[in-house]
Design goal:
The protein has about 230 residues and is an alpha+beta fold. The protein is about 35% helix and about 25% strand. The strands form 2 sheets. It has a 5-stranded mixed beta sheet, with no helix packed on it. Strands 1-3-7-5 form a 4-stranded antiparallel beta sheet, with no helix packed on it. α1 runs antiparallel to α2. The longest helix is centred in the last third of the chain and has 53 residues. The chain is rod-shaped and about 125 Å long. The two termini are about 80 Å apart.
Length: about 230
């Protein structure tokens, strides 16, 4: 807060705008009269086409305050390096007690003349890049791979469990065939040998594919129960 110990105090000491393309932004400036006199003020800027200032002039009663809203109009492009060279100037001067209307003030109220008390506050402009939308976009991008990875893991795990279950069932069928054949004759028939060989090959292939899965490093799923 800048006051100079004289007529008014100004808060904040610089105008900070949340900058976003094609959207206006505003900053409120509080001007407080620190004297027992009426004080008139006037706001000027080096870029009057870029900003709306309301009110840009006025009279503040003793020990009272006034809020000035400065609006940055929507811009179509970012300034270089987000740096702004625009400046604002707040002028203040004491006026007679009955001067509550600006229309009653003379035209030279804010002119610099010998013997006149005229204070000036210079305020610079700072642009702040709005990061909310970009942050949300980044978060969504970060979350997308995670969701895809989880789905891929679940799918691969289900395929692995199914392969192990199928291999177990084939092995059980092979054991059943062996037991049946042993009851009928002491040796293994040619058909049984061929079936056993094929089932063995299928079991080995399925187990090999299951163990080759990248999910082999993940915590194992509960073993399937025999049906």
């Amino acid at each position: 807060m800048a006051s100079g110990g004289k007529l008014v105090s100004v808060d904040p000491e610089e105008l900070r705008f949340q900058f976003e393309l094609e959207k206006p932004s505003h900053c409120d400036l509080k001007v407080s009269n620190t004297t027992d006199k009426n004080v008139a003020f006037k706001v000027k800027t080096t870029s009057p086409k870029k900003y709306f200032v309301r009110p840009n002039t006025g009279v503040i009663q003793p020990y009272d305050s006034c809020t000035i809203r400065v609006t940055l109009q929507a811009q179509l492009e970012y300034p270089p390096d987000m740096q702004c060279r625009d400046k604002f100037l707040l002028q203040s001067t004491p006026v007679p007690p009955n001067s509550e209307d600006l229309l009653e003030l003379p035209a030279n109220t804010f002119s610099k003349e010998p013997g006149k008390q005229l204070e000036e506050y210079k305020l610079k402009v700072v642009y702040i890049a709005r990061t909310t939308d970009r942050g949300s976009s980044d978060d969504s991008l970060k979350q997308t791979p995670d969701l895809s990875s989880n789905q891929a893991i679940q799918t691969a795990r289900a395929a692995k469990d199914a392969a192990v279950k199928e291999a177990t069932q084939l092995q059980q069928e092979l054991d059943t065939l062996k037991r049946r054949n042993q009851k009928k004759s002491p040796g293994i028939s040619i058909k049984l040998a061929i079936a056993a060989g094929l089932i063995g090959i299928m079991v080995g292939f399925i187990l090999k594919m299951a163990l080759a899965s990248p999910l082999s490093t993940l915590p194992p799923s509960p073993p399937p129960t025999a049906e």
